[in-house]
Specification:
Structural class: alpha/beta
Radius of gyration: 21 Å
Number of helices: 15
CATH superfamily of the largest domain: Type I PLP-dependent aspartate aminotransferase-like (Major domain)
Oligomer: single chain
Number of strands: 13
Bound molecules: pyridoxal-5'-phosphate
Largest sheet: 8 strands, mixed
Strand content: 5-15%
């Protein structure tokens, strides 16, 4: 029999995947061209050409026992050193390999961070709406997720609500900037505000409250905005980074956790992160892709493709009367459903072969999420279906 813990999460946590599978079923029935699957955040933009070149060069020139073998749980020393150098150049820091632990994407990074810091009954605060998978990463450690509201409309964190939500059990606060599912980007005053609240509360309560900065969309931004780097604002920070979106490598499962020297109990934390990779069973991040990343730190994907998608879909939906904040980053639109029941609305959308995810999965009922990391032509083809859906509720 499956565990009670897994039984509890069986229903809710797989909504996005279930939707993706539903899309495949609809495609089999109506033809792929006639199904508008906006459910999964799977990048449609090609990885940069440098990735393929790096793979070929590594296989041709590097020692295969290095390329395919085990290494230190934290990852290859030279790869971690290269990543630390990249962070230092971009954000004016002084990190080295000892500050970096290579991970299996951001999901793997979040899992090892939470395994390192959480005890049963601890609390982790996140701002709603939030990436629903956080529930599982936190529950795995017997801890509880506490959702703090954002200001509806801008989806910026409510700092007063944050302050009231902190208790002696608060171990961490997750910040996801740019945000999935809203596409909101938090600027410096918000980040400083969060850091100030947590510094004050840590002092008042005599506890270490960590910030877990979940950064997979860091480079997916559309306006000329400088996203604040959390290590420059708060010492008890874990940066969780992934190349899933920034280099369109979601299936390769590669990312890292960065911690500053000033984090509380640095040596123990660094060692525990490495041990946690083994305990959760992945042991080390994929070896070939660690080596690929080290050669591709200056590569990027064409974010203009997502921007074009955003503009087409956002303008169309706004014209149809949908309420939605214009996203400044990531590749999601978080839209108010035309009826209060977001799940019923998502079912209604399916009748027009539109697949989207209900806001409840993100802790924000009454809304739905559109992942527009799909082809422009698919979005163009979907416009009539959106019009028909809106008409159903007029
Ligand atoms: C906010 C957020 N965090 C973490 C992840 C996990 O990403 P990865 O593929 O790097 O594990 C995702 C994936 O969509 C995400 O949206």
């Amino acid at each position: 029999m499956i565990s009670k813990k897994m039984r509890k999460s069986l229903g809710g946590s797989s909504v996005i995947r279930a939707m993706f599978e539903e899309g495949q079923k609809l495609s089999a029935l109506y033809g792929e061209d006639n199904v508008y699957d906006f459910s999964l955040g799977n990048p449609n933009v090609e990885p940069p050409a440098g990735i393929k070149k790096a793979i070929q060069a590594i296989l041709d020139t590097e020692d295969p026992t290095m390329v395919h073998g085990y290494m230190n749980n934290s990852g290859y020393e030279d790869v971690r050193e290269a990543i630390a150098g990249d962070i230092n150049r971009k954000y004016g820091l002084d990190l080295s390999s000892r500050n970096i632990v290579m991970c299996v994407g951001a999901g793997g990074g979040l899992s090892v961070v939470f395994k390192t810091i959480l005890d049963p009954e601890d609390e982790v605060i996140t701002f709603a709406p939030f990436f629903g998978a956080y529930r599982g990463y936190i529950a795995d450690n017997g801890a509880n997720l506490v959702a703090v509201p954002t200001h509806l409309g801008t989806f910026e964190p409510d700092l007063k609500a944050l302050e009231s939500a902190v208790t002696p059990k608060t171990k961490a606060v997750i910040i996801n900037n740019p945000n999935n599912p809203t596409g909101a980007v938090y600027r410096e005053p918000v980040i400083k505000g969060i850091a100030e609240v947590l510094a004050k509360k840590s002092e008042e309560l005599g506890t270490d409250i960590y910030i877990v900065s979940d950064d997979p969309y860091r480079e997916i931004i559309y306006e000329d905005i400088k996203i604040p780097y959390m290590l420059n604002y708060y010492k008890n920070t874990f940066i969780v980074y992934s190349y899933s979106k920034s280099l369109s490598l979601a299936g390769e499962r590669i990312g890292y956790v960065a911690i500053p020297n000033e984090i509380a109990e640095f040596e123990d934390v660094a060692q525990c992160l490495g041990m946690a990779t083994r305990d959760i069973g992945y042991t080390n991040a994929p070896s070939l892709f660690q080596r690929v990343i080290a050669r591709c730190l200056n590569e990027s994907v064409d974010v203009g493709i997502y921007k074009k998608n955003r503009d087409l879909l956002y303008n169309h939906l706004a014209g149809l009367g949908f309420e939605c904040a214009k996203p400044e980053g990531a590749f999601y639109l978080f839209v108010k459903a035309l009826i209060p029941d977001d799940k019923a609305f998502v079912e209604a959308a399916k009748k027009h072969n539109i697949l989207v995810v209900p806001g409840s999965f993100f802790g924000c009922p009454g809304y739905f999420r559109i992942a527009y990391c799909t082809s422009y032509s698919k979005i163009e083809k979907s416009l009539d279906a959106w019009r028909a859906l809106a008409k159903d509720f007029k």
